[in-house]
Records
---
Amino acid sequence: MNMPKIPLGEWIDSLVNWITITFTGLFSFLNSTIEGLLNILVDVLSAGPPVVIMMILALLVTYTSKWPLGIFTIICLLLIDNLGYWESSIQTLAIVILSGILTVVVGLPIGVWCAQRKSVRNIITPILDFMQTMPAFVYLIPAILFFGIGVVPGIIASFIFAIAPTIRMTILGIQEVPKDLIEASDAFGSNSSQKLFKVQLPLATPTIMAGVNQSIMLALSMVVTASLVGAPGLGADVYRAVSQINVGQGFEAGLSIVFIAIILDRITQNLRKPAYERIVSRKIVFSILAILVVFTALISEVKNEEVEEGNPSGVGAQTEYEIIGIEPGAGIMTQARNAMKDYGLDNWQLVEGSSAAMVAELKKAYDQKELIIITGWSPHWMFSSFDLKYLDDPNETFGGSEEIHTIVRKGLDQDAPGANTILDQFFWETIDMEEVMVQIEEGTDPAQAAEEWIAAHQDKVAQWTNGAQEGNGNPIKLVYVAWDTEIASTHVIGKVLEQNGYNVTLSQVEVGPMFASVANGSADAMVAAWLPSTHLEYYNTYKDDIVDFGPNLQGTKNGLVVPEYVDIDSIEDLK
Ligand code: PBE
């Protein structure tokens, strides 16, 4: 059938665009409110030495779920601290608690409303179904555009993902209240709010709490996803471990998440009927807790006021001492971390996320002429779309000018000699790569951009394929990371191999897995090794199990990049 494609994607794009522009004010208000609340929570949880918080949490678990669990809690928390994940855990705990509070504050009234009105319920239920089945990743995309990268889009996405159970269970709980009790309260002449607060809600509480418990567990399950857009905490530790193939670290961080899950689960499950309620009443415990929280919050706010120093109009203050980074495993991230040490930028933070999120953040800041510092590299189309400059790097922490190498698995010359030859002879210039990148950025599909470039540069391609045997449909698997540079190069070389008779698959992975897969032979080749310095660590780890074909492009550069209108010139100026 020859029907034109319905431009659903484009409609959504323009809708999101419109929302972004129209509600800028609202978003920045929400952004600062949520971030402010989160900071308070983090401050409260990290006031005083860790042991104090551990004791309080353990006591709370003991109170709600008996002493053996309290002991278990203290052991878990001590272990987390010992493994070095205490700070991350505090971040995660704060994020989950805040998402939990938000789901209750928003979800409960919606649930009540749905329970009372069938028409509302008929509208909300399908929306909830939709929200729960849409992959949570998808929410991250508009969330980045609305809120920038950092913890807020993560919290919002978790909130959307997690709110459904609270609403559903509230509806269920209220509907399950026996009819005769409602009739009785009607008979006593109670109005609808009396009925709600004195009869329905109290009777529905166990069901509602089960929903809240589910919501909190769902929010916790979002922490890894949220770290893709820069949310800190245990999720970021897991993500970093994946992108660097660090099994041990992945397990430790994962285990910490499990511990936090158990603790939160026990507390929320038994909150309504604590195990030791007879000994100390709930009111007393919760009042003490509330007073403690408010008190620490106030104290840490006062302390914060005192330490607020430095020049409020300086670059640091205006960027909140944040450098916007990319995938945690990227070589440039290691360089940036080293640079922060080298140049003594102790109060700065490197935000982890992804290349796409970084670019979105840059676009946003650039449009509003706000200060921003990113980890940047060339060749990259961003230099032609925006007026940008590299900050001077007198210590050469970012390694100066580099090359991109082609690396193939051992034995490829035997199994696919033609592909081996082509990959070996693949070499092009920065302007070639840029041509493809700009095309892709302007909306051309990468495969098509590659084809067009090949058609326009037959002479160059002929040099690569010179003397290469036909592929006869043999499979070739190329791996790459979703950096703009490698999207371009991998698609071009992939198409060339295809035109020479190979059956090519491209697979997009994280940095560590990219090297590892070529080393263990599960992928055939990659054209994305930035050397000698950016990927040195990966290179050294795998160098005995790979074949290095040398550079396919020369003259690349990494560094910290700012828009031209930012009036500093060197990394040293950030101090
Ligand atoms: N980058 C920049 C790669 C190589 C240099 C993002 C394309 C990286 O940092 O690992």
---
Amino acid sequence: MSLWLVRGGNVLSGTVTVQGSKNAALPILAATLLVEEPVELTNCPMIRDTENMVKILRSLGCTVKREGDALIVDSRTASDFVLPTALSGELRSSIFLLGSVLSRFQAADAPYPGGCEIGNRPIDLHLLGLKALNAEVEERGGHIRCTGGNLRGAVVDLGYPSVGATENVMLAACRAKGTTTIRNAACEPEIVDLQNFLCACGFRVKGAGTPAIVIDGVKKGHGVSYRVMPDRIVTGTYLLAGAITGGDVTVTGTQPETVDPLLNKLTECGCLVTMRDDSVRVKAPKRVRTVGFTETRPYPGFPTDLQPQLFSLLSVADGTSVVTENVFENRFRHAQELKKMGAINRILDRTAIITGVERLHGASVTAHDLRGGAALVLAGLSAEGETRILYAERIERGYERMDSVIGSLGGSITRKEESIGKEDERRRTGELPV
Ligand code: UD1
């Protein structure tokens, strides 16, 4: 288990360059299977989720090399269509490989993602999309087996704009016969990045960023060097880290328009926001004011992946705020942890009522998930005293060297590895509740 000690009280200021986007890199890595030539991906973040995806690609037979911020993937050597259970269990996005593995090998075998039951984390839309493209899908014993010797273009209506399902259908459709139209597609910037990558490889995809994506199947793509887009969630997290400490933080190498919903909130909070071409600066007052009502929505709505971090900021804002989580059912686990630090909040189903306090205090808290963990780091930075974050390795799934980035802004995070007992290990794997 990784334990992070966050020392609170320092005002963060300075400039950081943001890492490449996790949620763009993962489907693009999956897409390399469609390209039977070497592909170079620059600005590919060095985080647990990409490292796990690399392990999965290697287990399928791909050759993958890391050179600085680049990953070079050669999928010519890939030969297996069975996704490894142990690794896929750690990485929900292994499900994104279903479409590309199926397209490449006319078959794909994957465990249910995240080791979860389908009821908890449904993938019905992924499967609906693949079936529409003429794949046969069998669900048995915790595994999904797809076969599709004859993938054909079709109209796929997603019902809900699921990011992963949109990406999976795009990947399966690239080499299918004929034209595929995805209706009600997710509009997230990472979908646009996937389209840009696919087009750079010679595939024919258009419409990403709108609810209608059209893919004309082509037989094969070609190798390319491609730069992954900057991470908008990490951008937002560091801007919020500045804001919660009353600081002045600039994030460069980013696409400011992709964090617009957050910037609107920060302005409403009393921060001064300045946007340039590829950078954004947020100068915060000593204590922000409340923002009334926030609800998470698919893009261009407020992102669910920044809800926990905003929650931390609102926990020390002047006044009462209301946050509704519309995208995921169970995404307020940080609320309980923040209470241990003196926060005042009440959860009513999908809505949180947060009464800001003047100051949080350090406590021993648990990072239940990636963004919830990041929220605790932010809270710890603003709190009085030391915050101990248990299971902080979950934060490393998505943030590259967060301790040194925060350190460069004047914050203090010390990482420690702690050995954990059997019971804790069972908690970590989800066998016991945390
Ligand atoms: C992606 C992002 C994740 C982000 C989320 C929403 C990656 C690797 N992850 O996750 O960081 O929080 O988008 O912006 O890009 N759903 C179904 N059936 C399905 C699929 C999804 O009911 O077949 C539901 C989910 O349970 C959830 C909602 O749709 O309630 C949104 O999920 P989705 O957009 O698919 O998120 P992910 O692609 O898993």
